[in-house]
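Lecture 7 notes: from sequence to structure.
We start with the chain below.
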Amino acid sequence: MSRPAFLELLDAEAVFRRADVYQLAYDEDRAAKASVRLAIIGAGGVAQAKYLPAIGRLRSRWEPVELVGLVTADAQQADRLRRGWSVPVFADARRMLDEARPDAVIVSTPDGLHAEHVIASLEAGAHVLVEKPIARRLTDARRMLDAAHAAQRLCITVCNKRYSPPYAQARWLVDQGRIGRPALLSGKFTLGYDYVDLLEVGTVHLFDLVRYLAGDVAAVAAVAAPSRRNDRYRFENVALTLTFGSGAVGSLVTSSTATSFHPWERMELFGEGAWLAVDDQRAVTLYPGDDAPAERWEQVVPHTLLSAEEWGGFVGLLEDFLDAVRGQELRRTRPDDGYRAYELVVATQLSALRAAAVDLPLDAAAADAELRDRTERKA
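Predicted structure tokens for the same chain:
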């Protein structure tokens, strides 16, 4: 049996035998990798809270990655970033691409600008990691994937939770056959604030995990409670059922009128005489049978050996992206996964608006047009 995914971020040899608790000792193999010139377009909150610390953590482990440019239109932020990271900061993305000439770009701009910045980066010869959701229209997302194919460059969408130890462990358990063939999935995702789109910004993570753990979805049927407090975003409380291509079925509930600081995310996957649950991206529990004890892997809080960026999956995602830029195979995602997760968002919206089930895959142009028309008529 291969090493459990829950433990892959910790080098037991370093921690327990070499007294290298934080895994900072010189790593000859890692240091010998080809250096990657990396830039970030959209150096705002997510970039500063997640990606820059993830880059720092990888550098501390001798990962050869050079930060060659940041892009932000905020002059105060630009000055602080320039001084704090000793890196050129630009107000214009195209100028950064021309002058810095990165090998790879993280795009973390507002969702509606993703297509513009991703396609510009690809055409400049860079590989791209784009924040979720991949876009605000399926046709834009498709243009991005087509541009990547034409440029013979990689374009993947952020899927950090696939690299978070509890979800990586859950997938490992499925691959090891510990629950047999998955037959039923159940999940929830809740927020306590309404200043982001529930489905496009929050639940899209759950949609990606649904596919990661149970495979492609063939149909979605959704119902939504009437919006009570938010004029900007139509969907605040949604329940949906899923039919998978494998024949499995599932259900999800998601809310932006609940809480964020109490249990807010749970995924259950039921198989043949066994099942597992992942709670709040913190713990995974396997129930292997009626006559066997449960097996549980859980984070120690606070964790002194792993950073939040490692536990949240950002370090693993970025490392995988950098290795793919160097020519290796991606470990936990494919270029179309971001598109498929957003397709589930659109299918859920259409199903709730139609009051009918929606089959997948969607025709991108037709789905965009119908959603725009139904939204305008409801406004």
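Points to note: Residues 70 and 131 are 15 Å apart (CA to CA). The chain has two domains: 5-158, 161-307+334-378.
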